[in-house]
């Protein structure tokens, strides 16, 4: 769906962008919870970067390069999170612009962009119905697309 219907590039970069989007949505919801939910948000962030490190190593990236690559991806991750937070708060047009800059740097069909915006808002709204305390207990389920 993300790649076929919304024109997200089925590449490492495109897949990373979708991981970042879904991580942002989960982290944003956990941020609204108690200290246990907020601790889980930190654990999730740590786990994302640990997985990146392990994947680079499995791909044969040398030990000396892994840290640099993970740091670069961390910069991108936090840059996207920094862009998405105000964009989600501001509305559809701002979210579309954030996606246009970050997910579709080479251009996108308007229908695909609208589709990703609609999808992201549905995911956010669906997660908003979940109690952060229950998410902290392991019940994070993204709504059906």
Question: Would you mind describing this structure in some detail?
Answer:
α2 crosses α3 (63-90) and α3 (63-90) packs antiparallel against α4. The chain is globular, with a radius of gyration of 16 Å. It has one domain. The N and C termini lie close together (9 Å). The protein has six helices and no strands. The relative contact order is 0.17. It has helices at 12-31, 35-58, 63-90, 92-102, 110-128, 132-136. The longest helix is centred in the middle third of the chain and has 28 residues, at 63-90. Helix content is 74%, strand content 0%. By secondary structure, it is mainly α.
Helix content: over 70%
Mean pLDDT: 90
Span between N and C termini? 9 Å
- Structural domains: how many: 1
Written as H for each helix and E for each strand, in order along the chain, the element string is: HHHHHH
Radius of gyration: 16 Å
- The proportion of strand residues reads under 5%
Unreliable stretches: none
Number of strands: 0
Structural class: mainly alpha
- Based on Cα principal axes, name the global outline: globular
Main sheet specs: none
**Helical stretch tally:** 6
């Amino acid at each position: 769906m993300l790649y076929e219907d919304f024109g997200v590039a089925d590449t490492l970069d495109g897949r990373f962008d979708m991981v970042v989007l879904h991580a942002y949505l989960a982290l944003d919801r956990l941020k609204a919870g108690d200290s246990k939910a907020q601790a889980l948000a930190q654990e999730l962030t740590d786990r994302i970067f640990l997985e990146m490190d392990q994947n680079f190593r499995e791909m044969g990236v040398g030990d000396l390069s892994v840290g640099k690559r993970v740091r670069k991806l961390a910069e991108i991750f936090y840059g996207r999170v920094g862009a998405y937070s105000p964009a989600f708060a501001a509305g559809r047009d701002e979210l579309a612009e954030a996606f246009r800059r970050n997910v579709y740097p080479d251009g996108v069909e308007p229908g695909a962009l609208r589709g990703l915006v609609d999808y992201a808002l549905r995911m956010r709204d669906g997660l908003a119905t979940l109690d952060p305390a229950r998410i902290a207990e392991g019940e994070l389920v993204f709504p059906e697309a």
